[in-house]
Write a structure and sequence with these properties.
two-stranded antiparallel ribbon; alpha/beta; six-stranded mixed β-sheet; globular; 2 helices; 150 residues
Length: 150
């Protein structure tokens, strides 16, 4: 699983001009799946997302997780995170999981994040043409890949 996690002051996603997910302070998480991803990856990644200390404390130091700022999460599926640009100029998405594999993983990710965060997770719609808007706070953008656990 690959993710791009952005600390935001607000973010939303629209499908067909209708808002499907919207948050104020929190995290916009773009997530892409591979065929080899599993529930262990979901568990590890969700805990990493929730525990990332990327919000400012009272001294202006990035020291707080999303839970301590009463933040929300907007989760958006994005297969293009697995783009390979090694050959030519047209990206290959061969590493991205097909929908029959990725959709159950996406749904399990939503459930796990909700369980850990203790409140609903806002989302886009898997496979839809989505319009994502955000105000990146900082800017703070973190890349996390479950294949590169550090």
């Amino acid at each position: 699983m690959r993710t791009v996690i952005q600390r935001v002051s607000k973010a939303s996603v629209k499908v067909d001009d209708k808002i499907t997910g919207e948050i104020k302070t929190g995290l916009l998480v773009l997530v892409g799946y591979e065929d080899t991803d599993n529930e262990e990856d979901i568990d590890w990644l969700c805990r990493k997302i929730i525990q990332l200390r990327i919000f400012n404390d009272e001294n202006g130091v990035m020291n707080l997780p999303v839970t301590e700022v009463n933040g929300d999460i907007l989760l958006v599926s994005q297969f293009t995170l697995h783009a390979s640009t090694k050959k030519g100029n047209r990206p290959s998405y061969i590493k991205a999981a097909k929908p029959e594999t990725a959709i159950p993983l996406y749904e399990k990710t939503i459930l796990k994040l909700r369980e850990i965060l203790g409140k609903p997770i806002q989302t886009g719609i898997f496979g839809a043409d989505m319009k994502v808007s955000l105000v990146n706070d900082g800017p703070v953008t973190i890349y996390v890949d479950t294949k590169e656990k550090e």
